Amino acid sequence: MIIFKDIFLVGAGSFMGGIARYLISLAMKGMGSAFPWATMTANIVGCLLIGLLWAAFNRVNASSQLNLLLIVGFCGGFTTFSTFSKESLCLLQAGNYSTFVLYALGSVVLGIVAVALGYALAK
């Protein structure tokens, strides 16, 4: 059964997370590097935040609505795995192999493959 309150909570969290992600990209714009620092920062901070929230929510038995708002919504809107995957593919296409290895270390390969497939299909 679809609960519209839950959908609203995820959407509101995603909205806030997306804005926070955009603010990070603005703050880090002009660092003068081909390395995608803003995306990497958002992903690392988002991973730390989701771990902290998950542990805290389990410890205090937080409501499912709080989980939907902050973990599913905010963290989902804040982290940028799809952007990360696209930027990784661009690094490979440009021949920046060492930067790619540094950037992609620890990432899920299937995300990169999915972006490459989508790019190829849309081309």
Helix content: over 70%
Total number of helices: 6
N-to-C SSE string, H for helix and E for strand: HHHHHH
Portion of residues in beta strands equals under 5%
Number of strands: 0
Give a structural overview.
With 123 residues, the chain is mainly alpha-helical. It folds into 2 domains: 1-79; 80-123, no CATH class. It contains 6 helices and no strands. The chain is elongated. The longest helix has 24 residues, at 4-27. Helix 1 runs parallel beside helix 3 (64-78), helix 4 (81-93) packs antiparallel against helix 5 and helix 4 packs across helix 6 (109-122). The N and C termini lie far apart (38 Å).
What are the key terms here?
single chain, 123 residues, 6 helices, 80% helix
List the helices and strands and how they pair.
Blueprint: H1 4-27, H2 37-60, H3 64-78, H4 81-93, H5 97-104, H6 109-122
Brief summary:
The protein has 123 residues and is mostly helical.
